[in-house]
Amino acid sequence: MQKEKILVIGASGQIGVELTMALRNLYGNANVVASDLREENELLKGTGPYVSLDVMNKEMLHVQVIRQNITQIYLLAAILSATGEKNPNLAWNLNMQGLLNVLDIAREEKIKKVYWPSSIAVFGPTSPKKNCPQQTIIEPITVYGISKYAGEFWCNYFNKRFGVDVRSLRYPGLISYKSEPGGGTTDYAIEIFHDAIEEKKYECFLKKDTYLPMMYMPDAIRATIELMEAPQKRISVRTSYNISAISFSPAEIAASIKKRIPEFQIKYKPDYRQVIAESWPQSIDDSVAKKDWHWKPEYDLEKLTDDMLKNIK
């Protein structure tokens, strides 16, 4: 049996660092090649191979895939919602062309599996707010959301037309202590923990009752690997799976922190990200993921708060 050789593109990012480490635990350090345009993340140093790679340079990418005998590609390089609004052209070009380059190489080289994340940003103001279903009205209002929705259809197209086994999750807001937030609208839920410990106060860029779907990074990493490990016959969705864990508001996460740090104070000063947040659902229906490959989250808000505070300290 051919040994798996995995390439992670965007390995120094918020998801990339932890996913690379989890894949190295599973497949062996030498079999997971981390790559990014940025410096290698401190947490990855010395844990396995690292190459400097620009996903927009298709020839360079193709050479690496052949040279390293790659069998699976995880494409995580992207410009996120809040950052994307500042430079829409760059966000569209990177998010779209990067994916097309990878899908094209996967088709040519008969890569076994490709992973590419989508996001709840595909949903828009017209999507249902509560328990937003797998198939629904999707009219995104950010360039990030537009690029992710278009990307979902490219994934579906390459699967149906060329048989590329590409799999995807629509991530909610992701919370992690290991790497910096990447310029998303849900980043407040990471910043608040750091400020609570260092300053005992936080100024939130969203209104206090803004509910958003969230997930703790260990759940997101596990979901990604479980999806990729699932037998092909169990995968019924080739656009991107809805996936869910918890939904909370800034007021609720603040209350959860205050229980543990009584002197903690929060102020609210909504900015341009409020409009983005209000265009997204407050909760997600992920019953298809549960049915297809038995997805189940482990972390609720209390467990998440304990773990974040313990680890940041």
Describe this structure in words.
This protein is α/β, with parallel strands linked by helices. The chain has 2 domains: 6-171 and 216-237, 3-Layer(aba) Sandwich (Rossmann fold), CATH 3.40.50; 174-214 and 244-283 and 298-312, UDP-galactose 4-epimerase, domain 1, CATH 3.90.25. The protein contains 11 helices and 14 strands. The chain has helices spanning 14-27, 58-67, 81-86, 88-109, 143-162, 188-198, 217-229, 250-260, 273-278, 287-293, 301-312; strands at 6-9, 32-36, 50-52, 72-75, 113-115, 118-119, 166-167, 169-171, 173-175, 201-204, 212-216, 241-242, 246-248, 265-268. A 6-stranded parallel β-sheet has the order 3-2-1-4-5-7, sandwiched between helices. The protein has a 3-stranded parallel β-sheet with strand order 6-8-12. A 3-stranded mixed β-sheet has the order 9-11-13. Helix 6 (188-198) runs parallel beside helix 8 (250-260).
Helix content: 40-55%
Count of DSSP-assigned helices: 11
The average pLDDT value, as a whole number, equals 96
Q: Rough shape?
A: globular
Briefly summarize what is shown:
The chain has 313 residues and is of the alpha/beta class. It is 42% helix and 15% strand.
Features:
Rossmann fold, 15% strand, single chain, 313 residues, UDP-galactose 4-epimerase, domain 1, 11 helices, alpha/beta, 2 domains, 3-stranded parallel sheet, 6-stranded parallel sheet
Task: Spell out the blueprint of helices and strands.
Blueprint: E1 6-9, H1 14-27, E2 32-36, E3 50-52, H2 58-67, E4 72-75, H3 81-86, H4 88-109, E5 113-115, E6 118-119, H5 143-162, E7 166-167, E8 169-171, E9 173-175, H6 188-198, E10 201-204, E11 212-216, H7 217-229, E12 241-242, E13 246-248, H8 250-260, E14 265-268, H9 273-278, H10 287-293, H11 301-312
Parallel strand pairs: 1-2, 1-4, 2-3, 4-5, 5-7, 6-8, 8-12, 9-11, 10-14
Antiparallel strand pairs: 11-13
